[in-house]
């Protein structure tokens, strides 16, 4: 269960709302994930924009939110290695939105969109990777070649984040536990109905249950065989009675034929 001790409750509430929105309506080329134990770490997979040296790559990054967020900007890091002027060798991202241009009203959607735009239009003048910045200014083709090599080696598709997990991440375990308790009660209610007098519909429900596949067969079979066992004595008596009637009728017919011959 999420504890989120690093952030104030009001910030957690706002983040939960924003993360849910990002999950339901993600920005183009961006998929967001969250650390269930700590909302102060936001993950995102960014697809390399078409027409750039990063095309066909998937770059995983994270945003670290400090205790006084949103009054101070988050820190951004690429976890996937990338050859880019504004991304340092340790993955740190240099963009004005996360520094001097930060505004508390800016949301995570805006930050992630700006980071993806950075892959389209780098700023070599404020380079953290001096080699990439210099190469971009002096020989774009060589820069693009290096960037494509890094992309091909490191930016391979990642396992996708679990969809729908963001919006309920702080209560998912409680919900699961509640559902589990309800299932346990339901299963317990079915067991007493496994008797010869149980309706066939009850046995069918037990047989179709996805939560109890192992018990499905026996439940169904027990209900059905019990019903047959209960009905068998009566059926045998009826059969015996019919047999006696038919035998008596045959004897009467034989006597009538004998009398006619006389």
UniProtKB/TrEMBL annotation:
EC number: 2.3.2.23
One Pfam family in the UniProt entry: UQ_con
SMART domains: UBCc
Basic residues bias spans: 247-262
Gene Ontology MF annotations: ATP binding; ubiquitin conjugating enzyme activity
Biased composition annotated in UniProt, kind: Polar residues: 201-212
Cited PROSITE patterns: UBC_1, UBC_2
EC supergroup of this enzyme: transferase
Active site: 94
Family: Belongs to the ubiquitin-conjugating enzyme family.
Record-given protein name: E2 ubiquitin-conjugating enzyme
Lineage of the species this protein comes from: Eukaryota, Viridiplantae, Streptophyta, Embryophyta, Tracheophyta
